[in-house]
């Protein structure tokens, strides 16, 4: 089991950043790498257990299931059901915490998963930088004051 | 029960911050309100259960016990055992987290406690502002302290002799005279700064002429400078002697070698921003920051007209607006300046000295006009600006190089549902939190290369009159600085 952890500071209040990201079906609206997304079975995107089925801009399809969603803690977690990444037992959490000094947001995004040992380094970089940090960079642009 | 939460980003790796905070007795070194502290019974400061016994600078006395310490989670929890303050059941937790983006530290500080009915707000502020926010600033200052720099202010209260350029009476550049001046020891809340570079701005000309009555001659002018902190007054927690700093603020008085001024207006410089750049960028950079992010939140795709596009603020506006995705059109007085403006990101330039630009702008925009006009010209360009504005456009007048408006054309705004703004930097920077944010975003834009400064005009401080003459002749490009 390896863990990838990425954190950043976003120059906007936490409730504003949360409003951007709480929609489990909203990845195309704020990440640079998701082309389109739908929730399977017509469920609401904030129903625990719902599955988002999305296509990456590079063509890959991923299915992820919403495990937890907390408007109180600004936190959600999800697991990967199917993907071309070659990971098992993948569970990720995205969490925001207000930074009172400057009214900004501390954003954390981490994942734990299993994979072939020789792919750990590459996958950690791809997920930590290519997905999580890229998502934060995109958020910083979207919510800038 | 009262719950107090404060959090901050500390610009240092988590290992460095934790090495300080995990020591339960380190607060005398970095916390501005703690006077003396000992760990009772000679126990180690990382012994869970140990008690720190300390006095505050206001005379209060507190005993606190360490309840939990985790080097794995960067968490420390402690409670008050007894205190001369009426606080009961106080339990606090300090938690650090790594900011992987930039190798910084997120510091979360939270407590719950009870206090007599009716005094809740008083103690929530005491803890939240006095202890936690004060602690953030104190630790930041502690981390910046250079080896060898005095930990506390140097003894002595003497006045320092210096030289300054003083406006002897309102008038042309020649009223600027070199005179001996004094910088007094900082009073509470003040700081004394030895300048290394001073920025020249058009507002200095207005003040010298008496158009903006911000001084009574004889008095020095100048709104911005960079330098090194000589000493600080009581109650100043975010600055230490030896810190490299800069500021842009009223009242005027920056054309001097050493100056004493309110510490709340002074920010610490990042290592990678040199003094000349800082002196040149504080007023103009923060002006561009608020014009593009606050007065108007510029969006990608908007068309922007920047007047004096090769001037100090103009160049920054062009570069930054383009980086934000806007289409930038600049007005300039010469072909030379047009080249500079285009290099700074102008998609098109309009050259002229007669304040006639509306027709050319409409040509350049297919008849649509500008969504936003950044206007430092004032009266002579007023009619053309209205004409150049797109429907529902925003005309932002932040300067009056051609003279103040005779009369605001308020009723004419209705013809285009236009918005008119008349912003002043010092209103935006009045709150310390906003000032810090504006300065940080400006430094970040420099770091990222979003804005660049090419300082071509340097003068000795004693040649301030020449600098003014050249600025007013419109022959300069980019910022001007004075070197004391």
Query: From the helix content, strand content and strand pairing of chain B, which structural class follows?
Result: alpha+beta
Strand order of the largest sheet of chain A: 1-7-6-5-4-3-2
The chain-level structural class of chain A is alpha+beta
| Portion in strands of chain A | 35-45%
Major sheet strand order of chain B: 1-7-6-5-4-3-2
Span between termini of chain A = 39 Å
CATH architecture of chain A: 2-Layer Sandwich
Radius of gyration of chain B in whole Å, from Cα? 26 Å
Task: Work out the helicity level of chain B.
Answer: 25-40%
* Poorly predicted runs of 5 or more residues of chain A: none
DSSP strand tally of chain A: 7
Instruction: Tell me the major beta sheet of chain A.
Output: 7 strands, antiparallel
State the shape of chain A: globular
Helix content of chain A: 10-25%
Protein name (chain A): Polyketide cyclase
InterPro entries (chain A): Polyketide_cyclase/dehydratase (IPR019587), START-like_dom_sf (IPR023393)
Pfam families (chain A): Polyketide_cyc2 (PF10604)
Protein name (chain B): Enoyl reductase (ER) domain-containing protein
Question: How would you describe this structure to a colleague?
Answer:
With 145 residues, chain A is an alpha+beta fold. Chain A has one domain (2-142): 2-Layer Sandwich (Alpha-D-Glucose-1,6-Bisphosphate, Chain A, domain 4), CATH 3.30.530.20. Chain A has helices at 14-21, 27-30, 120-142; strands spanning 2-10, 34-39, 51-56, 61-70, 75-82, 88-99, 104-114. Chain A has a 7-stranded antiparallel sheet. Chain A is globular and about 40 Å long. Chain B has 484 residues and is α+β, with helices and mostly antiparallel strands. Chain B has 3 domains: 2-144, START domain (Alpha-D-Glucose-1,6-Bisphosphate, Chain A, domain 4); 160-283 and 459-483, Quinone Oxidoreductase, Chain A, domain 1 (Alpha-Beta Complex); 300-422, Rossmann fold. Chain B is 28% helix and 32% strand. Chain B has a 7-stranded antiparallel sheet. In chain B, strands 10, 12, 13, 14, 15, 22 and 23 form a 7-stranded mixed sheet that branches. In chain B, strands 18-17-16-19-20-21 form a 6-stranded parallel sheet, sandwiched between helices. The longest helix of chain B has 25 residues, at 120-144. Classes of the chains: A alpha+beta (145), B alpha+beta (484). At the A-B interface, strand 1, strand 6, strand 7 and helix 3 of A face strand 1, strand 6, strand 7 and helix 12 of B.
